[in-house]
Amino acid sequence: MTAVVLAAVALPNRLSAQTNASARPIEKPVNNYWVYVGAESADLIHRIRFGPGGTVVEKTTPVGELPTEMEGPHGLVIDRAGKYLYMTTGHGQPDGKYWKFALGPDTLVADPISLGYFPATLDLTPDGLYAFAVNFNLHGEMEPSTVSVVYTPTSTEVTQVTTCTMPHGSRVDATGTKQYSGCMMDDQLVEISAETFKVTHRFSVAKGAEGNLGLGDLGHHTAEHKGMKMDPPTCSPTWAQPDVTGTKVFVACNKADEILEIDTKAWQVTRRFKTGAAAPYNLAVTPDGKLLIATLKKGGSTQVFDLASGQSMMLEKNSTTLANGLAVTPDSRYVFISSEGVGANPGKVDVYDLQAFTRVGSVDVGQQSGGIAFWKLEPAK
Question: Can you tell me the distance from the alpha carbon of 196 to that of 180, in angstroms, rounded to the nearest whole number?
Fold first, then answer.
């Protein structure tokens, strides 16, 4: 099947008049929504509330074990019951660890455990029993790295699954049976069985060479170590986001400025969403399955696509630079976007209305805000 290529779009500060005409008027929220965000360069976790009263940092919790060393909260995920927050600190052994907090009091419920080098994004199976954390590995020579599998009730690392070089963007599909990640330096999408903890598929996302790979193909850098000359990555995938049906995965090609839609039944690229020269970074699909949302790191922007038509519904500059993480509310109404900021400037969390397609909230947080996770919503009193 030939992939459908969607037209590239420029990066204006606001929507085009044609797109803006499809947006609904802004309505005041009737619920309060809470998210947690990590500030990697400040060793802080912030709890943020958005609702009729605005956007506020409700609580800030210091994290880490060594007060003189930056340990870097990186990946955050919350179980469906809203009981526990799971987090990785990403700065490598001996500091790269997995943590478990009780939500509300925001206190540790178990000693942190070491994973691989630079554990980054993590996700949970729907039952909350297993966490999959990609070990990004920024240490030493580039070589194939791993995904750590953690049994959450006892905070026990069950195994590490070797994937390829610099895995990033760990996400479990809606069925709870598959985990996906992209390997930034090897241009691969890797599928792991959440039942056997083994690699079950490898797919090349290299531009012009998309297609199936052998299960033993560990990528460019393994080949280079064996003396084979390999080209540099052309996609450099930073995120792998399954859709709500469990039949497609969206891959953010950070270097190619596009998002691939991959059919995981036929294992083919079925569509390409162009983002302009903006470096798509993280992705999310709304729970109703209607919208694909991307943070554009180099563009400092957020873009929203309608999945039925492929049309770009929103393209808006965030309130500060270096767009990073995103968390969608379960009613598909709002998305929270974290942006890192530069240097000593604070990070930001912006809130976008997914009906009006515009920013409706913003709040300062600690430097280099990144990992972000939705907690709960309640009717406003």
Answer: 14
pLDDT tens readout for residues 218-268 = 765 554 544 445 678 999 999 999 999 999 999 999 999 999 999 999 999
Task: Report yes or no: 4 and 268 within 8 Å, Cβ to Cβ.
Answer: no
Q: How many helices (H) and strands (E) does the chain have?
A: 2, 31
- Write the CA distances from 56 to 122, 251, 363, integer angstroms: 26, 32, 6
Model pTM?
0.91
Residues 337/350, Cβ–Cβ less than 8 Å: yes
Q: Are 372 and 78 in contact (CB under 8 A)?
A: no
Residues 190, 86, 334, 278, CA torsion sign: negative
Q: Which two tokens stand for residue 117?
A: 């080098």
Per residue in 111-138, pLDDT (tens digit) is: 999 999 999 999 999 999 999 999 999 8
Tokens 């240490």, residue located = 139
